[in-house]
């Protein structure tokens, strides 16, 4: 068998008024336009870096790619605090904490406790290399954000 070289027609979004290709009683169903998902408006600047990662038993953020994006080397002083259920980690000369010798950020036990984080919990971490900070979004904060979006989209809980 040889390769099929017939091009596949592209899908073009429907614009205009739908008119069935076959009328009632023709024995054939009407042709409907393909359903297309609505895309969010473009506007992402690309300035932020995202990572979904897990915490280990010591409170370390396992993914080090964000630290590389931030330019934080082992020994970099950082400030860690909780703000409205989120954990903010910022580079600062007055920082009590430091990036470990292995290149990890460790979230202090008190902050993990305030945010209800346990070993193995997956968190969304967002870094802004230009500003020199990252924000850790615990599962409870993610659930609240997603619920708010679902409420806005569906006017209530998802169906």
From TrEMBL:
InterPro entries, per database record: SpoVT-AbrB_sf
Q: Which Gene3D superfamilies match?
A: 2.10.260.10
Q: What's the superkingdom here?
A: Bacteria
* Record-given protein name: AbrB/MazE/SpoVT family DNA-binding domain-containing protein
Species source reads Cryptosporangium minutisporangium
Q: What is the lineage of its organism?
A: Bacteria, Bacillati, Actinomycetota, Actinomycetes, Cryptosporangiales
């Amino acid at each position: 068998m040889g390769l099929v070289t017939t091009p596949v027609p592209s899908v073009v979004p429907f614009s205009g008024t739908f008119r069935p290709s076959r009328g009632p009683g023709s024995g054939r169903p009407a042709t409907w336009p393909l359903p297309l998902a609505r895309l969010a408006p473009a506007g992402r600047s690309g300035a932020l870096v995202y990572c979904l990662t897990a915490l280990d038993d010591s409170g370390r953020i396992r993914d080090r790619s964000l630290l590389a994006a931030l330019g934080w080397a082992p020994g970099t002083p950082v400030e860690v605090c909780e703000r409205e259920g989120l954990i903010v980690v910022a580079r600062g000369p007055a920082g009590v904490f430091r990036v470990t010798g292995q290149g990890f950020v460790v979230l202090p036990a008190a902050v993990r406790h305030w945010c209800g984080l346990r070993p193995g919990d997956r968190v969304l971490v967002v870094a802004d290399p230009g500003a020199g900070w990252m924000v850790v979004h615990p599962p409870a904060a993610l659930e609240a954000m997603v619920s708010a979006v679902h409420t806005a989209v569906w006017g209530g809980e998802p169906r």
